[in-house]
Write a structure and sequence with these properties.
Blueprint: E1 2-6, E2 12-16, E3 25-27, H1 32-65, H2 76-98
Antiparallel strand pairs: 1-2, 1-3
C-alpha cells in the first residue's frame, strides 16, 4: 500500500511509503492511477535525463576552457563518451547544413 496526495484537479501529485500528513489516501501498489503516475514520472525523468546530458557536456567544456579541470582529468570512459557525442553532434549539424535546415538541431 502507498499513500498518495492529490492536487486541486484530483491527480496524484505525491506518493510516499508512509502517511506523512493528514488527508493522504491509501492505494494498493498496482492501482491503475499509481501505475499511470509511475509511467508519467518515469517518462519525465527520462526526458530530463536527455536535457541534462547536454547541460553536463556544456559544463565540462566550460570548466575545461576556464582551466578549472583538464579534459584528461576525466575517466577515460567519460572522455570516450563525450568525444563520441561531440562527433555525432558534428555530423548531424553538417547534415542539417547540407539539407538547408538552419534551425540548428543540436
Amino acid at each position: 500500500m502507498l499513500f498518495i496526495q492529490r492536487d486541486a484537479q484530483g491527480q496524484i501529485c505525491q506518493v510516499s511509503l508512509q502517511a506523512d500528513f493528514a488527508g493522504q489516501e491509501c492505494l494498493p501498489d498496482d492501482h491503475p492511477e499509481l501505475v499511470s503516475w509511475r509511467r508519467r514520472t518515469l517518462q519525465q525523468l527520462q526526458d530530463s535525463d536527455l536535457e541534462l546530458v547536454r547541460v553536463l557536456e556544456d559544463l565540462v567544456e566550460a570548466l575545461s576552457r576556464k582551466g578549472v579541470i583538464r579534459y584528461t582529468d576525466l575517466p577515460s570512459a567519460a572522455r570516450e563518451k563525450l568525444a563520441a557525442r561531440e562527433q555525432s553532434r558534428h555530423q548531424v549539424n553538417v547534415l542539417s547544413n547540407l539539407l538547408g535546415d538552419d534551425e540548428g538541431l543540436i
